[in-house]
Amino acid sequence: MHHVVLGDDPEVKQGKPSSDVFIAPAKRFEGGPVDPQNILVFEDASSGVLAAKNAGMSVVVMVPNPRLDNSYHQTADKVISTLLDFNPSEWGLPPFKKSAA
């Protein structure tokens, strides 16, 4: 992770579904702001999905419990039930390194 931004950050004027919480860290990458289209957000709440989409970012929704609200799944780019279901190559990312267990 490059940047962690919390709700009390001075650049976060409004909470989700405002995109402030995603735009603030995008501005902090070395070399200047990152194009929102190159940012992948992981979310588990409808307000976060809306915030990321409003910022122009791609969203993977992780829903570990299928009984949770799923009304926002159509807005997300991908829905998974666990991070183990995430395939980095679908997003042009390198594969995970295998760790010794």
Automatic annotation (TrEMBL):
Transmembrane segments: none annotated. GO terms for biological process: glycerol biosynthetic process. One of its GO terms (molecular function) is sn-glycerol 3-phosphatase activity. InterPro entries: HAD-like_sf, HAD_sf. It comes from the Eukaryota. PANTHER family: 2-DEOXYGLUCOSE-6-PHOSPHATE PHOSPHATASE 2, PSEUDOURIDINE-5'-PHOSPHATASE. This is (DL)-glycerol-3-phosphatase 2. It comes from Striga hermonthica (Purple witchweed). The lineage of its organism: Eukaryota, Viridiplantae, Streptophyta, Embryophyta, Tracheophyta.
